[in-house]
Amino acid sequence: MPNDRAALGAFLRSRRDRLTPSQAGVEPFPGARRVPGLRKDELAVAAGMSPDYYSRLEQGRQRNVSSDVLDALARALRLDEVERAHLHDLAAPLTRSTSAGPRAGGHPDAGLLRVMRTLDHVPVLLLGRRGEVLARNALLTEVLGSPLEPGASFVRFMFRDPAARARIVNWSDFASATVATMRRETARHPDDRRLTALMDELRSTDADVARWWEDQTVRDYASVEKHVRHPTAGPMSFAIEVVGAPHEPDQRLVVYTAEPGSPTAHALAVLAGSNAVPRH
């Protein structure tokens, strides 16, 4: 059974809409334009396929799609590596094993836990593929103002916990990136019903999630900046680095790094030494 072809068509349409003929390197077809982006027939020509074949793809009527066709579309649409991988996932047959579904993220990777325990001087968080908290250290909870107990959803924290919007100065940047990352995960794991249910729930109850989901943006976990307003330590700035383990691709260690000698590094040292931060 093929993956959700409606999702494939929606993604293709969104990427086509954002690209003009000049950006795609094709001559605009004559006639009045009803859309600012590429027409379907213009994209078909750019990708080297018939307009009818491309229409079937976008309408979800093409059951099987070859890798060569997907690569041609990715080139024509100027997709980046994450978008290209996402396109292939959306077009893949739904034949991946579901055996990892129930246990996905259930047990923290021992190696990643050892790394986390050597980083008591900075906030650290271990996440599963659904954004569930597998482990975190004391500084993480102190900086973000939430207990984030193992088993809690970091995704729900971002949208449901008032502390997220209160503490994270650039909340909208971080929250939109969270949605884009979860969209990428749903394509990687179309059989994960718990992940799909989580995003359906948030889309139906939060206008920001719905809006960011509809724009079809996808991203992998990546290094970003996070600015935090701590009630006693004041402004703090972190570069967020993400570490994975080859044998546990669904788990990621998220490390909040600070420049040595910076005000943030000094504030962390104070917080780590205060009685307000319990040891785990």
Give a verbal description of the structure.
This protein is α+β, with helices and mostly antiparallel strands and 280 residues long. It has two domains: 5-91, lambda repressor-like DNA-binding domains (434 Repressor (Amino-terminal Domain), Orthogonal Bundle); 110-273, Beta-Lactamase (2-Layer Sandwich). 47% of the residues lie in helices and 13% in strands. It contains 14 helices and five strands. Strands 2-1-5-4-3 form a five-stranded antiparallel β-sheet. Strand 3 (224-230) and strand 4 (234-245) form a beta hairpin. Helix 3 packs across helix 4. The longest helix is centred in the middle third of the chain and has 18 residues, at 171-188. Residues 96-103 and 275-280 have low confidence and may be disordered.
Distance between the termini: 46 Å
Level-1 CATH class name of the largest domain: Alpha Beta
Query: Helix proportion of residues, in percent?
Result: 40-55%
Shape: elongated
Keywords:
alpha+beta, 2 domains, 434 Repressor (Amino-terminal Domain), disordered C terminus, 280 residues
Layout: helices, strands, pairs:
Elements: H1 5-17, H2 21-24, H3 40-47, H4 51-58, H5 67-76, H6 81-91, H7 110-117, E1 124-127, E2 133-136, H8 138-144, H9 154-160, H10 162-167, H11 171-188, H12 193-205, H13 207-214, E3 224-230, E4 234-245, E5 248-257, H14 263-273
Antiparallel strand pairs: 1-2, 1-5, 3-4, 4-5
